[in-house]
Task: structure prediction
Amino acid sequence: MNEVFVGPVEVEIARASLAGIVQEMQNLLFRTGYSTIIRESHDASCAITDHEGRVVAQHIVLPLHIGAFPACAAAVLRAYGDDLRDGDAFLINHPYEGGSPHAPDMAVLAPIFVEGVFLGFCGSIAHKSDIGGPVPGSCSGQARETFNEGLHLPAVRYQRDFVRNLEIERIIAANSRTPELVLGDIRGQLGCVRIGAERVGALTKKLGLPHVRACFDRLLELARQRLRAGVAEWRDGEASAERFVDDDGIDLERPVRIHVHVAKQGDRINFDFSGSADQTKGPANIRPSLVRAACLFCLVSLIDPHLTLNSGALAAFDVTVRPGSVLDPRFPAPVNTYNPTVHALVEAVFAAMASIAPGRGRADGCGGRSIIIGGRATSAGKAYVQYELFGGGGGARSGKDGVSGTMVNQANGKVTPIEIIESEFATHLRRFELIPDSGGAGAFRGGLGFVREYENLADARFSIRSAKHVIAPEGAAGGGAARTGDIRINPDTGSEKRLPTRYADYPVTTGDVIRLETPGGGGFGDPLERDPELVLRDVREGYITARGALQHYGVVLAASEGGLLLDPQATGAERVRRRAGPSQQAARFAADATI
Result:
């Protein structure tokens, strides 16, 4: 068969068209979502693949899904590759047989046929409010195997000839505490992939099937070349770094080590995670497809955040993981609380890359977390699952302060508005505010974490999956660590209870208060190098306290009728004293004593 030539204009038309199609799919999914997880938190992604399951276009809401889509598509092709036809659609959420990060992330894939030829898949992956298991929300921080994490579907045919399989829907509904939400979200996913398939079909008729397939191949190759060209600009060398997850939810006194050794030569780079911890008893494990996706996130962040992402970029570097480790667990090791592990991996990679890609250093961020409250509303007696995603403070980087009250790293969801929470769930939000002094001190200050406090209005069951409540986000280049997170039930009372970083199924009653405090981000650079005027501004805006200004930055403020003012002379003297260091100060005191 003769190779089809496509020029740069044709390739760019295909790229822009595919990006627009995926964006339309994504917008449809968010607007038709039944659950707050999709329509408010935006815990979902859409993509288009080629006939081999390689992603050729993805709207990047959740970067990890670029590794999940090919694995899910491969599972469908293994099971149904000889029996695909127009009008089919498939479901899969199995982390081991497919590529879902955890079972609540259910994928819907529809094959694209043009002129009777299978071109690829349109797909979406979206988190489900509840798919069964021992706790509301299906994400138990104490799960010991995947069988504790809800209903698992291998690749199954959901539609044939555009007709839904109602038996599959009945099975899913029977395994969910919120069946209407789950089925509504699945049908929304189905609708968006159908629209995507129609749009890709129209594009193919416009450009021609051979040309579109050639454009797919060219887009994959261009992404691979662009990423390798970016890698080639860095210095050759090797570096190692590590980060730790607080615990796995079972062994609460044992941090989980994530270690990476980076080797870069020319335009090739390898991330070796063989030194990471063994697979854990609790749900801190992640699958290799997510490891690769997380590494791509780091590379794109360091090279060009506007780089076109597809499976070509995903294949442009090497990753080594050790079977039986926390990053390549053996079935049926639990995986539902994967996000803290991915955050630790990302921050270890960034720390190692600081010496290979100079000038791109950054401090650690707050990690990721979710809370889940499940019960029955007192008004209608109907089951509900309140599932929320949170961040905290972003780490500072060279030249910029960290962002406050944000998602960090690969997490890219949104905080559900207070009005939505109070109108849909049995809760009252009492506080939602930034925490002063929670960001790490530095020449560039870390972002602030926040406190979110709930008053429970009905008996319910509470679960949390969080990070960095024990091990603080680290600073960089001499910057300070950030404040850790915390979770308490009925704080400041005689019945106060502090929960571990991960906890499942804590019973809360009407009137109980839940207070979540999220970590800040680490600081970057020596705090004594921060402009005192910026410190004064931070105090006036409530980011840091006057005490924090003195303690962490050596900035002395004086009270006046108009408020706090900077004392330049006292500040200069305080910073000179601190820069002298303990040893020089001790020598000076000894000299003074001999006079």
Remarks:
- Residues 584-595 have pLDDT under 50 and may be disordered.
- The chain is about 30% helix and 20% strand.
